[in-house]
Queue: 4 jobs
Job 1
Amino acid sequence: MGVEDSLMLEANSIDLYYGASHALRDVSLRAELGKVTCVLGRNGVGKTSLLRAVFGLERIRSGKVKLRGDDLSGLAPYERARRGMALVPQGREIFPRLTVLENLMTGFAPLPRGQRRIPDDVFALFPVLQGMLRRRGGDLSGGQQQQLAIGRALVQRPKLLVLDEPTEGIQPSIIKDIGRALKTLASRGDMAIVLVEQYFDFARELGDVFHVMSRGKIVLSQTAAEAKDDEIRRLLTV
């Protein structure tokens, strides 16, 4: 598979404003099938704004977002989901009063009726969920809720899976479980993964490409082979 065949997401020269505040400045990003593209940076540098632009949750001033070469301009978030995009939001945002099963079923929303079933790989990757289907989401631990949020995204059968700081507030054992799951998903080669993180050690184990953001711009882009850990760590602590 050539690079163009594997290219799933292109965000080209994105500029985004909140009022007079210039939140994203000429930001470009690509994500390929079978690879984990990491977006790193401290709080407030524009990482979540970039995701909101990609998913159509904020209107961009200039630039283009493309999925499999198709321009997404003008498409609402739910239409982008139908095209194969899924987001695991920061803070998980599961429904605390719904059961685990009901939370997973909310992932059916963008799917045609014939595909509305929970894929087996959700429970293969996160077996703890299978034993908790009747428990309410709000009764789960933070780590279990994070697994549920990822499982809900996988129910959509995405071609592009985007995770916004999935390690935030999660115990180390479940961080390892999430890392193993993402490695498995990437190795299948039929999904592009974008991982937004502050925790560099987690991203370093998974990432194929690293982009570091500062003040609304990407200030460093390196492949895993090129990555200089000390340089990246310095940018994350400045």
Job 2
Amino acid sequence: MPRISGVPIPDNKSISVALTYIYGIGSSLSAKILKEAQIKPDVKASLLKPEELNLIKDIIEKNYKIEGGLRREIMTHIKRLKDIGSWRGMRHMKKLPVRGQTTRTNTRTVKGNVRKTMGSGRKPAATPT
């Protein structure tokens, strides 16, 4: 199983799909990297030569932020929003949707599956005194 920048990529998939297992590389960036390296996108990852793998590693490390560096940068951006007290920062603090989605009904995944509707929990019958 070849490793690119510390991430094991699957052998049985084409290299264009296998590169998307790296955080920060999607399908379009994967195609751009392979075009720059002059490697066919439909070649299986296990069939790549070590020279080709090293070329891909070099292109990625020189030109793009991936994995830990990218995660760190995103966290600093969110921290800056929280520190200045912007609307988006407040939404991040409250763990609510940030990008303008409605929250009246369809945010069960973000809010945590809290159901506050009639009949969701029945009160026990009152005991006679």
Job 3
Amino acid sequence: MKPKYLTLVEAIERLIDKKGHNQLMPSERKLAQMYGVSRMTVRKAIDNLVNRNKLYRVRYKGTYTTDKKLLKDMDAFIGFTREVENAGGKPSTDLIEYSLLPADDFIASKLNIAPGAYVYKVIRLRKKNNVPLMVDESYFPKSVVPLNETIAKQSIYAYIQNELKLNMVRAHQRLRATFASETYQKYLQIGENFPVIHLELTGFLADGKVFEYTNSYKNSERYDLVITSQI
């Protein structure tokens, strides 16, 4: 005989199909009343669906139906806005920090500029269909990419290509699994023990200049990174 929670899983899956993507689910108490089961059974069913990426939990808000993961092609040098649009989603950005400051020794070495040269520091929360996917902490040398706050809220890559007419040709990217800071956990709406994908990126122009140094912290449940290898 099928365990009760698995029967409930099937019922909740039908409810998920009706609701669509990124929709708030009824509370555990409400689901228990709807299906005539205990809250323990509901919690076990919800855990099953979370583990299978059918649902996701947002701390203090509730449980939501999932959207498809956003695919990041590591071989294609495109920005977040185009990635989301190519996937049929609606991109949006919350600007957390925008500042102009002298580069310390570490940032200067990453951007291949002199220490003390001015850089723009831009921290942004990137969303797909209003769901937080990642936090980008970026640095752009002022001498190469002059920015303003309005541009920082939009697609910086589109601005570089279309307005500055600069040719972005390659990026050096390094991946690792890690945990986000407490501040970034809140922005991503994840717990302290939730693993994120850390992507360190250095972007280069056709003339060899470095135009960007970025650290991205991506929700591992919302992102798939794809790498194509040729033999």
Job 4
Amino acid sequence: MSEYPWHCRFCDREQTVSGEGWQASVVDLTAVNADGPRRLVVQFVVCPNPDCRKLSLSAALHDLKVVGNRSYTGKLIRTWPLVPPSSARSFSATVPAHILEDYHEACLAIEQSPKASAALSRRCLSGMLRDFWQVQPGSLSDEFRQVRGTVDPLTWEAIESVRKNGMIGARMESEGAEILDTEPGEAKMLIGLIETLIVDWYVGREERRKRLKDIRQITGEDAAEKAGEE
């Protein structure tokens, strides 16, 4: 198999996987049944990052196309992430535990219950706004309005693109993590927004702190402060 781009959920890095790090097995169902022929593809991927080398395992169910004596993989029906158990990204410990917990549970629930996943995502977004920006509690839409003009313009554009999609904005008017009707793709969009905001806010803040520390070490400011404290 030729090389292809792949994102490792363990080390959270973009990778290029070759045939040596990829293995797949195929199981075909040809017995007469109510749903028709099916093909199950089970795939292993070993992260090529030498500091990671974790294995990922997933399964995908497809239609099976049979033409004469040959069979082909048809339309994708469903996928299952098995190892790790969800598509959640790995974020640093600088993100509060309760926010990461809601995010991971939203990712775990997305296939079985998009409604529950979306509710957890809304609670996660509210938790981020209250923790990072200390907004006043209210509906999620109101909490977002409190940071308008404060967050980076590109970040606000990402927020608005999700809020204006379908009925997402209307559901954000509800306070708390209510289980509400969910449109197709809404749960995935909310998870995508969570990931964007974690990177922009928490990861970005930690990177700025590290850069400041490096600058202070170069200029000798840290050493001067420590000497003054002694």
